[in-house]
Write a structure and sequence with these properties.
globular; 5 helices; alpha+beta; Beta-Lactamase; 141 residues
């Protein structure tokens, strides 16, 4: 019996590079954001808050990253997953830290979920663009 497993996850260097790239993209878009990266276990790996970014967006960015890592699914995809199932939509919306709107992306490498990146402060489309810039900066877009 095998008693241990090896878990792949992001390095702290990659996490920091990703949030920095997300913030830099936000600057080019003229918006102020919060950007968070969590590891495969959903634990914080990196966080940046631009001066003047919405305060509530801090925890929203972290929860987007957590949701994306937890399900290996973009937070923007939840609407399609839930569909017309109102009971599922209502039940999931009550789960702590589960975000069902755009701006959170799984960090995938070699078919494995290594973590998640979440951005909040702009529109859903802007948040996702910034998150994708973070992934591109670490070669995982």
């Amino acid at each position: 019996m095998n008693t241990t497993e090896t878990l792949q996850t992001l390095s702290w260097e990659a996490a920091h590079t990703a949030v920095r790239a997300a913030v830099e993209r936000a600057g080019s878009l003229g918006i102020r954001i919060n950007a968070a990266v969590v590891d495969a276990a959903g634990l914080p790996a990196a966080f940046l808050r631009m001066t003047g970014a919405p305060l509530h967006s801090s925890s929203i960015a972290q929860d987007k990253a957590y949701t994306a890592a937890g399900f290996s699914l973009s937070t923007a995809e939840w609407d399609a997953v839930v569909g017309d199932n109102e009971a599922l939509r209502t039940g999931l919306a009550q789960r702590p830290r589960l975000v069902m709107f755009g701006g959170g992306l799984p960090v995938l490498g070699d078919g494995t979920c290594l973590g998640g990146i979440g951005v909040s402060g702009g529109s859903e489309e802007q948040d996702e663009e910034c998150a994708r810039a973070g992934l591109a900066a670490i070669g995982l877009a």
